[in-house]
Write a structure and sequence with these properties.
Exonuc_VII_S; rod-shaped; 2 helices; mainly alpha
């Protein structure tokens, strides 16, 4: 995976892959490669969302403890 990948870039690439597959503009020769990349991007996005959720919950707890 790209080292400077952000959630937004991963989501955009994933949307492009999905569009290519839905419109059948992906040749059979590269379909497995596209599906594999989509799987990697989905995993990246899920991990990013989980990490963000954890961080937000941590911040909320800290704010609640300051009251």
């Amino acid at each position: 995976m790209k080292t400077n990948l952000t959630y937004e870039l991963a989501y955009r690439e994933l949307a492009e892959i999905a569009q290519e597959i839905e419109t059948e503009s992906v040749s059979v020769d590269v379909l497995a490669e596209k599906v594999k990349r989509a799987s990697e991007l989905i995993e990246f996005c899920q991990n990013k969302l989980r990490a963000t959720e954890t961080e937000v919950n941590k911040i909320i707890k800290q704010m609640e403890n300051q009251k």
